[in-house]
Amino acid sequence: MARGNAALSRWVVEQAAAHHPDAVTRVAELGPGPGVGLEALLARFPDAQVWGIDVSSVMLSQSRKRNRAAVAAGRLTLLEGGVPALSASTPADIVMANHVLYFWRDPAAEMAQIRGFLRPGGLLALGYQLKQNMPAMAQRRFPPAGHRLYDTDDEVTRLAISAGFGSVTHLVKGSVEAPEGRVMLAVA
Ligand SMILES: C[S@@+](CC[C@H](N)C(=O)[O-])C[C@H]1O[C@@H](n2cnc3c(N)ncnc32)[C@H](O)[C@@H]1O
To answer: In this model, does residue 2 exceed pLDDT 50?
Structure first.
């Protein structure tokens, strides 16, 4: 997972930084998995306190291993849990979640909760891939497993708008014909 998704994680951090002109002191990543995104956040926002929140203790241990020095220095806090655990980071300047959207049963409700943990003007950076651009195996296996895939960026925008976000922007990594991933940036 770390190899396949690493480039997208790093790219999303750069897009979030470019879209957040103010000082960034509190940043959280939901579902950091192996911790590549956390590593990039720590490097890109050297003055920020960073939180990594994941439902999987196995994934958290990978994040810890990759970012041991930041945990020891007290800059990175790792917590087991879902969206409610973001309360530890509130009022967050940025919440990032890459390839997590598919696992939310009620994505509009999850996004509304995230908005509540962001400061006014804070940024949600949601990295994902559309269904048709996913590997064939994921397209086949995700829906029967109860995971939701998306056909268009508009579907994701509508969720963010219904959750109360504004100024929604979509960016594509790579070519439009063969995207390596995409990000939705939305302002609380
Ligand atoms: C496909 S992996 C992506 C990992 C990483 N963001 C990346 O792009 O490499 C999804 C991660 O999100 C976590 N996850 C799934 N649902 C979650 C939720 N509701 N809250 C927090 N983490 C979640 C999983 O445990 C896993 O670590």
So the answer is: no
* Mean pLDDT value across the chain: 95
- pLDDT of amino acid 22: 83
Amino acid at 48: A
Structure tokens at 54: 């994941």
Instruction: Quote the CA–CA distance of 148 and 160 in Å, as a whole number.
Output: 16
Other C-beta atoms within 10 Å of 150: how many? 19
Q: What percentage of the chain carries pLDDT values higher than 90?
A: 91
SS3 134: coil
Residue type, 152: T
- Split at pLDDT 50, 70, 90, the class of 144 is confident
Side-chain half-sphere exposure of 186, counting CA atoms within 13 A: 27
Query: Which residues line the pocket of ligand 1, CB cutoff 6 A?
Result: 1, 5, 9, 30-34, 37, 53-56, 59, 82-83, 98-100, 103
Residue from 55, 86, 124 whose mutation best tests the ligand 1 pocket (most atoms within 8 A of CB): 55
Answering whether pTM is above 0.70, one says: yes
Q: Cα(162) to centroid of ligand 1, in Å?
A: 23
Helix (H) or strand (E) holding 78: strand 76-80
Question: Atom 14 of ligand 1 has which residue's CA nearest to it?
Answer: 31
